[in-house]
Specification:
Blueprint lengths: L1 E6 L2 E6 L2 E5 L14 E5 L5 H4 L2 H8 L2 E5 H8 L5 E4 L4 E4 L2 E7 L16 E7 L2 E5 L8 H9 L3 E5 L8 H11 L3 E5 L11 H10 L3 E2 L8 E2 L1
Parallel strand pairs: 3-4, 4-5, 5-6, 10-11, 11-12, 12-13
Antiparallel strand pairs: 1-2, 1-14, 2-3, 7-8, 8-9, 9-10
Helix pairs in contact: 5-6
Bound molecules: nickel (II) ion (NI) and manganese (II) ion.
């Protein structure tokens, strides 16, 4: 599986040629080639996560998977959707995905309700990845570690709206992951971090700080 960071909390997974997007807010990857995207996962309704999901789904025919309320919102635009609830698995021809709790909020730009926020666990035959969405450090991460046993986690580290580096280090231990991929940092002033501090503190725990360069695929 090839993972490409697209900036903020956006990632592309290339699973045996299947292109899958997570939180496609592509402000840092304006030239991203959407051709061939088959599935889009959106963790919550905030515009820095919903991003261009609907536009991409319209152009490519990709299916959007999100919490029930957010999926229903997307469906109004005539795109294919998978509504999911917390704790459920959905099967795809490239793997299976569970929605897990995130401690955050989820509303549209006009303030209307966007359902619960969530994270996703991707079970990709032999590799398990956890994308936390926007969240605080929370005890569910112990459950996620015990039940889903992720190998690597994409964790927000920018603070202000989500957990910060200090919390991400604790989360990495609760999740039992060997690698941490930082996200949701340095996009805006309010989420500026010193990435060297993240690197040092994750290494101190004997884990790999997998700091990804935007647009550069990595084998995971
Ligand atoms: Ni948010
Ligand atoms: Mn956000």
């Amino acid at each position: 599986m090839k993972l490409t960071y697209l900036g903020h909390s956006a990632f592309e997974m290339n699973i045996n040629g299947k292109k899958v997007l997570i939180d496609p807010f592509l402000i840092k990857s304006p030239d991203y080639d959407i051709q061939g995207v088959s599935d889009i996962f959106v963790t919550h309704a905030h515009s820095d996560h919903l991003g261009s999901a609907i536009e991409i789904a319209k152009k490519t025919g990709a299916k959007i998977t999100a919490m029930f309320e957010l999926a229903n919102y997307c469906a109004k635009y005539g795109v294919k959707t998978n509504g999911i609830g917390l704790g459920a698995w959905i099967d795809y021809d490239w793997g299976r995905v569970a929605a897990v709790p995130a401690f955050h909020s989820s509303s549209f730009d006009d303030g209307s309700y966007g359902g619960n926020p969530c994270g996703f666990v991707f079970d990709l035959s032999g590799r398990t990845l956890y994308h936390a969405g926007d969240t605080a450090l929370n005890s569910e991460m112990k459950i996620i570690g015990e039940v889903y046993e992720p190998d690597a986690a994409m964790l927000p580290i920018g603070g202000t709206y989500t957990m910060d580096i200090e919390s991400a280090v604790i989360a990495s231990e609760w999740l039992g992951v060997s690698a941490v991929i930082p996200m949701h940092y340095n996009t805006f002033d309010k989420i500026t971090v010193n990435i060297n501090e993240f690197e040092r503190r994750i290494r101190e725990k004997g884990k790999m700080p997998a700091i990804m360069k935007i647009g550069v695929p990595a084998e995971i």
